[in-house]
């Protein structure tokens, strides 16, 4: 069945058809980690033997459980291709899996491979960024969720009386935390924001149960369900898994307005090391998050730069939506709100200046991580100063303060625009909902026309360019996030009388889409826009045949 789905691909070894009917999910998941790599699982949890007879109606429930999850396994060529594609094109967004160790583990005996839930979501993520196998993305995503949810129920069903039911040992593993995080990322790309948030919550709690937030902590509070790491690389993978979860939590909160789930004060895990150190296993000393934020730490890695950008983004958003009580906004020198504004602004400027060489632009314009981190920093500046302008206007503060914030807004929006112009693969980058958020936030600056000295044609040219890029990405990848963003930006432009050919093209996407705006103000008093999460999404619950 999978080979039939992939017949449009470039895999010459895939058979044209398979007359065996697809097998249905029965109950128990495949592999479960008992720790980190190398992967270890229970003997009955491997990929089922394709020669096993189908389950009949008279099969006992216990026998059914022992057989595991049934479906035709994808061919080895597809597994290798999609896994390789994931590491080449999507690993930058969640750099927590060790590329070499993970890939090699796929050739181990079934009971030593990664859990099937992790394998399937890695392949689903790889399929989502390829044109030849994209039709496999959703089936693999559904399989990943079925396996990981079955793992959660597993201890209530095991026959081994030596295991205590419900103690969570089978699903509370590093691999399952990684799986739920990748599932959340995948769901966000499909516009399933509510489901993505719930999946991320599971990853957060599993990570906390495992003590991933205290890998470098000491004392009783740092005890976890995991045994000590076997080497530095294993400890680093735990750190990286935690920081991917943490960054996702900050990005979700800052782009939806929902509260964060992680208390920064509870974290003692050091920031991640460089990619080279992680892949080669050469130990590298890093600093805690707090020391870097206080500018007391040493240099930081590219991944750590992403973590810091996520932290500053959330701080800017949080400050833009909250006003401290009993504070006099009319006095910028003594106001706690204005003091906090200056602290965050200085942190953003300092972070931009302190970025490591592999995050600096334009020399690293082909690095998706570099473009993402820089775009997020400039987006944070826009959030901060949009809120500042709203407070300046409501408090009757001097005009020169408004002009300063307007200048910062325009500069940040133009920097994002310049990054977009230089990027060689912008259509694929826009599959990331946060990059759509950055671009839409920049377009708000041009829509509101803060730069009164600029000619109207320049303003419309900038907006048309942004809209054309979003339309191109939507057509190339048929992505619901980019489609919805294009429609909303076109509506915003039309409301302001900015008609163009790009606006007409964007309206073509409106058919078949929920016309409720993808972005909206969190409240009437808010100065910034957030993604709107939907409570239900039937598409996310429909399992494929």
UniProtKB/TrEMBL annotation:
Keyword set, alphabetical order: Metal-binding, Nucleus, Transcription, Transcription regulation
GO biological process: DNA-templated transcription
Pfam family, one: Fungal_trans
Biased composition, class Polar residues, residue ranges: 41-58
GO cellular component: nucleus
GO molecular function: DNA binding; DNA-binding transcription factor activity, RNA polymerase II-specific; zinc ion binding
Protein name: Binuclear zinc transcription factor
Organism, scientific name: Colletotrichum simmondsii
